[in-house]
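S1.2 Input.
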Amino acid sequence: MASAKRRAIPPDPIETQRAIFKAIAAAQEPFSVEAVVALVDLPRKVPKTQVSKLLAEEMKSARLFAGKADGKKAFWHHDPKAIATSAILEVAAAEVLTAEALAQKAALLCPRITLNFKTLQKTLLDNGQLLKVKAAPGTKATAQRLINAERPEVYIESEIALLLKEVGLTRLPERIQALPEAESPGEEELVRDAAEKIFAAMNRIAFAPGTTVTFYRLRQQPELSNMPKPVFDRAALLLQKERRALLSIHDHAARLPAEEREGLVTDGFGKYYVSIYAR
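S1.3 Output.
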């Protein structure tokens, strides 16, 4: 008589969760559910449904983001939109390009991200993070260019150089600089100290280096819970300005109740951010 089949022992939930998180943190690019199942290092096979459930929970907590890889639904512990946005702003701060050229160049920096870069640029224009400026000399007036609103130095430098050239003068590039914002030493020190606390807390509570942390979670940390909102917001924005971190913008903040909107970081000019992660 044939022996009865033994029931398979299901994987330990805690062990499975740790293994999945380890596989997610190690991913260098967006991954599919099947890829996670293949990467999870466990003695027993993990059901795809269990992996999908854990991934869905991570997305609800804003620690995981949806995307595409090879035409299929995929996930990543980085926000693809934040990465693409950062690429656009970085290129726009380094060069003065048309919208078409800017989208193409930024997309080359993010080969695994399939977002529409032109659509992202429109959002950045609406948010005031990008600005339209006149076309380059010798080109059609309709070929307007885009610049980084917070870092317009390259554009200003080129325009001043052209004006000087018209009157027969030249200046070294380093002499043509945009003036920094005035800020009292006391305020600057306070904001910088707050930025260090936010950066340390962010890296401490992220489940893996470089993963996203919501500002809601950050504000719950003891060293940040009593920090005045204006200081907290300026400190978070400083981390992004110094390119130590990236902030994810909230697309529909205006529709949120005032209490929820208060928990976001804002620049005071209509832009709201929901989360942050170290670069």
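S1.4 Remarks. Residues 1-7, 178-182 have pLDDT under 50 and may be disordered.
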